[in-house]
Amino acid sequence: MRRRLAGWGAPAAALAACLLWTRAGAETVALVGATVHTVSGPTLENATVVLRDDKIAAVGANLAAPEGARVVSCQGKHVYPGFIAPISALGLVEIGSVRGTVDYAETGDVNPNIRAQVAINPESDLIPVARVNGLTSALIVPRGGELNGTSALIHLDGWTFEDMTIKAPVGLHVQWPAMGINRSRYERRSEEEQKKQREAALATIHKAFDDARAYWKAHDAERQPGIPRHDRDVKWDAMGRALRGEIPVFFQASAINQIQAVLRFVDEQSLKNVVLVDGYDAWRVADELKRRDIAVITGPTLSLPRRSYEPYDQGMSLPARLSAAGVRFCISDGGDGGEASNARNLPYHAAMAAAYGLPHDEALKAITLYPAQILGVADRLGSLEPGKLADLLVADGDPLEITTHVEQVWIAGKSISMENRQTRLFHKYDQRPRGPHARKHDEASASGGSTGSGRH
Known about the structure:
Layout: H1 2-7, H2 9-25, E1 28-37, E2 43-52, E3 55-61, E4 70-73, E5 78-81, E6 83-88, H3 126-131, E7 135-140, E8 147-150, E9 152-155, H4 161-164, E10 165-167, E11 172-175, H5 191-221, H6 234-243, E12 249-253, H7 256-269, E13 274-278, H8 286-292, E14 295-298, H9 318-325, E15 329-331, H10 346-355, H11 360-365, H12 369-374, E16 392-395, E17 406-411, E18 414-415, H13 421-430, H14 436-446
Parallel strand pairs: 1-4, 1-5, 6-7, 11-12, 12-13, 13-14, 14-15
Antiparallel strand pairs: 1-2, 2-3, 5-16, 7-9, 8-11, 9-10, 16-17, 17-18
Helix pairs in contact: 5-6
């Protein structure tokens, strides 16, 4: 009997440690003395945010910290909701030139059954880099073919994809083909080849939606007497919720002829829940988008115009134009695999939109509350309100300003380490040996003889 009990020693210790961690992780924390930017309401001076477990328990000016709470002084600091990347490949790609680390694009043209969340690498070095600039969640989107698959909204912290997933599926993603002819000198396909590929892609999309509708019509008919059972197909199963309008269909479309073609397709298919992704020319049909209540996830504002005859601020002013027209929108960095390593720059895309006509408060909402609303999680994310998940950041100023430092990040009530690969490399190379000239330069700087540090 003693041997049997001894055999349980390690598992019992592990269980006890787990229970202790759970109790420790379920503490109440009060962030006190900060300027709190709720986003959904007024900005509160000398305010307190109370976190309990993974949620916000209270927010208020001159609010006393609850008895027994761990008090974190944020005097002179600013508290904001965590930023939401509404289109991203974070966790799906590490190094674009190393194929084994790229898992966001699937082979084949019709892959509605692909689930982005199961491909996430929780140990990606790009996730902590994005986190330390205030990003707390991201919509992870698969790519490849015409029907890409379904996206998932994840927290940028967790041991497994199950830990990280906030909501899945969020929507079905469709890549709409280019409707025009590319005559640039870099295009190697003939006009005829481009037309054939466009028509083939359109036929693929139409057939996929028609086949999925026929599949679900047959499936629903099985409830009637005398109707045989049909075989299940995971591809068409995955499209059911999108066809019924339970989740949105995200159409990646940029040019005006693409957007107009998408709108015709939406009418043909009677789709009720639609989001436009990129929407570079969306401002040209803003009234129609507003009438249909179609939201736009804009592409990067930190970009040059896509046509030679356009003004330099064409892309930078898109959010302001959509906002003025009353179109629901939020701001992304484009979200393709190449942008994953720069996902931390999301707030600066919002800042650029603010510099080109979008009111500052709207720019902040465009990376917090508005993406939460478009992705269907505004009851859990996007603003600092009691009952919502405790995703927030503490900064020494306006996070849309590049000079501001994000000092703390909290995800689901957990304080996140601000260490990442870039900080480790900085500290490593900051200790590198310096030659005689550099040391003399440092000594001169210390004595006031030079303004340089010698640490370049």
